[in-house]
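Ticket #4471: structure output looks truncated?

Reporter: J.K.
Steps to reproduce: submitted the chain below (163 residues) through the standard prediction queue, then opened the result file.
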Amino acid sequence: MIHRRLFVCATAGAVGGAASGLHGLAWAHHGWSSFDQDRPLFLEGRAQGVKWRNPHVEFTLELSSPLRLPADLAQRSLPAQSAQVDGRALLAKASLPNRRDPRWEIELAPLSRLEQWKVPPMSNGASVAVLGFGFAGEKGEPLLRAEYLFLDGKTYGLRSAPV
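Returned output as attached by the reporter:
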C-alpha cells in the first residue's frame, strides 16, 4: 500500500526547532484540507488489500475498464446523515478522474462509523464504487477519501453517523 502519510518538513523549525539544519521526516494524519472538495470523483472496481481497521478502513481499488459515470448516479437514493452534506449536489457534480491510474487507494471512515452504518466487512474482490475527493489538482498519489460508499446495492454516507 502506498505510504501516503509521509510528509517532508520544509524547515528545521517545523520539526521542533532542530538546530542541525537537516530536513526531517514526519508521519502525519492528513485532514480534509488536502482534498479537493469542489470536485467529487466517482470510482468503481474491485477491492484489493482490504484493511478493515482503525484509524480508517483502507483498500486498493482496481478500476473497472472502461471507467464510466453511471447514468443513474445523480438520481441515486442517499441515506440521511447527522452532518450537513449536500449529497444531491455531489452526485450531480461527480466526474471521473483526469489521471488514468488503474489502481487508487481508498480511505473510508473510521471503523466505528462503518459499524454505525452497519457496513458489512468487505473482502478482497468485492465489487465496490465510491464517490469522494482526491488531492487538489489530482497531484500526488491516486488517493480518494470516500464520502459515499456503494456496496452490495446499498449506499452508505461516511461523513457522519446515520440519522
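Triage note (M.O.): checked the attachment and the full C-alpha cell line is present. Confidence is low (pLDDT under 50) at residues 1-29.
Status: closed, working as intended.
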